[in-house]
Amino acid sequence: MPPRDPTSQPIVQQLFSLLRRHFLLVCSICLLVLVVFHLLRVIYTRFFHLAHFRGPPWAPFSRFWISRTIASGDSAQIFVDVNKRYGRLARIGPNHLITDDPEFVRRILAARSHYVRGPWFDAIRINPEEANIVSERDRGKHNHLRYQMSAGYAGKEIDGLEDVMNERVADFVDRIDRNWISTAAKTKVFDIANRIQFFAVDMITHLCFGKPLGFVASDSDVFNFLRTIEMQLPIVQHFSVFLELNELLLRAVRIPFLKKYILPSAKDKSGIGVIMGISRNVIDERYAPGAKPKRDMLGSFMKHGLSANEAETEVSISLVAGSDTTATAIRATLLSIISNPRVYARLQNEIDTAVAAGHLSSPIRDDEARRLPYLQACIKEGLRRFPPITQLRERVVPPEGDVYNGIHIPGGTFIGLNAWGLQLDAVYGDDPDVFRPERWLTDDADLVLRMTQVLELIFGHGTTKCLGAPIALMNLNKIFVELLRRFDIETIDPLKPWKSTCYGIFFQHEFNVRITRREVASCATSDSGDTTSPPNPKSPDSS
Ligand code: HEM
């Protein structure tokens, strides 16, 4: 047989044999191309794209700076430092800016703004295939969901919203009174951080499902719900930075075998799946043919056309959106009050005087609380000094770009919102980092208006502004009065009053306090003639 002419081999075979013979050379060329490509990209992002914005030296090169900052558990403070050091619009990633300028944030979030929610929001879906009101990026769909849910959140179509709150607040303080009172001779260490969270979850589930989940009654994290969120959130935060992970997750959940391992399910025995299971049972009953409509939050969602599946997701998300935030607001404000003797004494005095004058029901009514100026100032100052949501919540610059202080921002840039930085604005004077409720009591109405406009940004602004704000504020209006009229509260370790970690929302633990009953009988009520329980003589620690 004549030898085979190598040129007569098919082209693919020829290529393979060439590759085999020069394998190392081919690999080196590929590597070189990749390195050159990466270098060009780095040079472009560093020196051309967003080059006018200053920031931490390594931030422009990759997203690892943001990811490392989030993982540190101290991102809120780090972002504050970045804007202080590098300007009100600073660079924190290859395509990422962050701002602490209230006016600019209001412009970004305004109803008619062309900015939209960025892919950051995909990371906060419970199910990667379905958006919810908090994560929906499509403006039209979001507006529709908001229209369906606003009446329920505003309490307009809920019977007895305030009664539910009163019931939960009274139950919470009564349990403290029964079980956690210290005396001159004995200390009962009470970790109020966890208990406040139990209270917040019970409050929201009571409003949503018509009954609390029983966290306060069992004095425990029922179904490991809170622990699961605490384990998952630090991971989820990285999905908001490395957006490819979201895409990967979306593909993975489309494989039925993987789906059941990845997504929470109503059949789970712990975590958010249990809440979905409970929501599912309630929703099945409520959506059953012939079921009687109820005037509660779910009833309002149904009335405005939310499907059973949508209702299940939205109820679960309201619990996640509302419980940690409210709990952080209560804890941070309480800690600020009890660690400032001037503030503590003045607030307790305002409460005692109102009680003595017969102006307060028990639990205090929302309208009564609004008439206590120092209480209102403390609540505002607590929210200002410790905004409970510090996630970047990135918005995307519209395709035509934008201009900030004369500098062009290219379309498609992500702009993160620096929630803590915003609340240190110069509008608050020269001591914005001090908890000083008196700043809200000035006679300068114009200043109060300007401060209020900045403060309101802690709930967002425009068409994505927090729907739960009225519920959160009503809660705050009640809880401090009910705690401080009955009890004296001291931190056990003033040098280390709590452990607080920030992953966009806060996880706070070991806020250990010592609670004693107050000598002043300040629980008498006014018009209702109602009285709260006096100190319980059967309590083992009654002094
Ligand atoms: C002090 C407590 C709270 C704070 C600081 C807070 C803060 C916020 C912020 C900043 C947003 C805007 C997110 C964005 O940028 O798009 C938001 C949205 C939202 N919050 Fe709150 N929140 C609080 C309490 C609550 C509560 C108690 C609930 C539910 C009962 C709730 C339900 C929601 C919902 C449903 C949205 C989505 C609104 C929309 O996209 O149209 N929040 N919240």
From TrEMBL:
<dbReference type="GO" id="GO:0005506">
    <property type="term" value="F:iron ion binding"/>
</dbReference>
<dbReference type="GO" id="GO:0016705">
    <property type="term" value="F:oxidoreductase activity, acting on paired donors, with incorporation or reduction of molecular oxygen"/>
</dbReference>
<dbReference type="InterPro" id="IPR017972">
    <property type="entry name" value="Cyt_P450_CS"/>
</dbReference>
<protein>
    <recommendedName>
        <fullName>Cytochrome P450</fullName>
    </recommendedName>
</protein>
<dbReference type="GO" id="GO:0004497">
    <property type="term" value="F:monooxygenase activity"/>
</dbReference>
<feature type="region of interest" description="Disordered">
    <location>
        <begin position="524"/>
        <end position="543"/>
    </location>
</feature>
<dbReference type="Pfam" id="PF00067">
    <property type="entry name" value="p450"/>
</dbReference>
<keyword id="KW-0472">Membrane</keyword>
<keyword id="KW-0479">Metal-binding</keyword>
<comment type="similarity">
    <text>Belongs to the cytochrome P450 family.</text>
</comment>
<keyword id="KW-0349">Heme</keyword>
<dbReference type="GO" id="GO:0020037">
    <property type="term" value="F:heme binding"/>
</dbReference>
<feature type="compositionally biased region" description="Polar residues">
    <location>
        <begin position="524"/>
        <end position="533"/>
    </location>
</feature>
<dbReference type="InterPro" id="IPR002401">
    <property type="entry name" value="Cyt_P450_E_grp-I"/>
</dbReference>
<keyword id="KW-0408">Iron</keyword>
<dbReference type="InterPro" id="IPR050121">
    <property type="entry name" value="Cytochrome_P450_monoxygenase"/>
</dbReference>
<feature type="binding site" description="axial binding residue">
    <location>
        <position position="466"/>
    </location>
    <ligand>
        <name>heme</name>
    </ligand>
</feature>
<dbReference type="InterPro" id="IPR036396">
    <property type="entry name" value="Cyt_P450_sf"/>
</dbReference>
<keyword id="KW-0812">Transmembrane</keyword>
<keyword id="KW-1133">Transmembrane helix</keyword>
<feature type="transmembrane region" description="Helical">
    <location>
        <begin position="23"/>
        <end position="44"/>
    </location>
</feature>
<feature type="compositionally biased region" description="Pro residues">
    <location>
        <begin position="534"/>
        <end position="543"/>
    </location>
</feature>
<dbReference type="InterPro" id="IPR001128">
    <property type="entry name" value="Cyt_P450"/>
</dbReference>
<keyword id="KW-0503">Monooxygenase</keyword>
<keyword id="KW-0560">Oxidoreductase</keyword>
